[in-house]
Amino acid sequence: MICRLIAAGLCSLKKILAAMMPEDVAWGITDENVAPIDYDEDVDCVGISFFTPQATSAYAIADRFRQRGVPVLMGGMHPSIVPDDARPHCDSLCLGEVEGVWDDILCDLRAGALAPTYGPRTPQRWVRPMRGLFDDRGDGYDWKPSLFSLARGCPRPCLYCNIPILQRGALRLREIDDVIDELRGLEGRDIYLTEDVIMFRASSIEAYTIALFDRIAELDVHVFMTSALVFNTRPRFLDALARSHTRANYVTLGFDPISRGVYAGDPKMIEATRRQVDAMQERGIRFHAAFGVGFDDDDPGVFDRILRFCEDAEIVTAEFFIATPFPGTPLYRQLAREGRLIHRRWVEYNGGHVVFAPRKMTAAQLSDGFLQLWTEHYRRQDVQRVLSPFDHVARAPDLPRA
Predict the structure, then answer these.
(1) What is the set of domains in the chain, with CATH numbers?
(2) What torsion, rounded to 10 degrees, do the Cα atoms 107, 113, 116, 121 define?
(3) How many other C-beta atoms are found inside a 10 Å radius of the C-beta of residue 115?
(4) pLDDT surpasses 70 at 393
């Protein structure tokens, strides 16, 4: 049996599937971002996983293979959240986490009897992804950290997040010994920990994270992390991150009460957030801010207030995105209920387009303000300083100055 796995924007899942392939299955992976798809390839099945912005492309790919009679299996975030949207373009759907159902899928493929739906089913084991699959991808990507998963599930139903829906609410943390064992086998020095739940303030999560980072401190690696603004700021917690050579923390702002205060210009919330920024950056950890805009409380003045905050708090590395109502999220359901969704062209559900009617500004004002944030913030920055946490980029001799 021959399987072709196509990454329409989600390579990490393909690495997990590759690690689960039995010896009697021939398989290959195509990363649509950097390589063309061979639609004439002789395969018994095509598997495609994708997020919402890649849905249109994924459907077109699937339709071409199905025209040849090749069975198509779809999975990933978007098909799991809105299966009825994906079903017309595939023969079978994998809902939720693939580790719990992959053996069943392969068994049915061999029998030529794919079921219409598999899952959702909570996996009973962690599967290490097959590393090195995309090491020969040339100049397609500038920065090549090892993405590292530590947890599944999240108990917090944030307004625009679909992870609790996909992986259900219960939090599952990976065994620390298993994490360290895999880290020791990596060739690169940069690792990106993909779940922000390990930054939560709950005592059980704090104990896990400190214990993990004390072990990571023994390794020759650089750590990059992600979190919401309501991360754990206790000194012993941040000290553990610093000891483990953490270089940057990607912090999402916009939906939590503290962020709302910053956006509104509340002096108390601004000062509290500045202390959080300082506490991290004084320890050598870059505060990589990601500001979402377009929430219902945001007015046209929010863009200037964010820029002023970045300057006052000495935030150098920043990103900006338009709050996007991904299908299935509380934000999507609210906007659909209120009749404020402009369209469902999934390719524009990517954080860079306005796909709903804002409450306190026009769609044009939101789009213009989003571009203003990028332009004005980076007009004031030195590129070398912005990229300094990323060693291989920061050492480039010919980077222009902003």
Answers:
(1) 2-118 (3.40.50.280), 142-394 (3.80.30.20)
(2) -20
(3) 12
(4) no
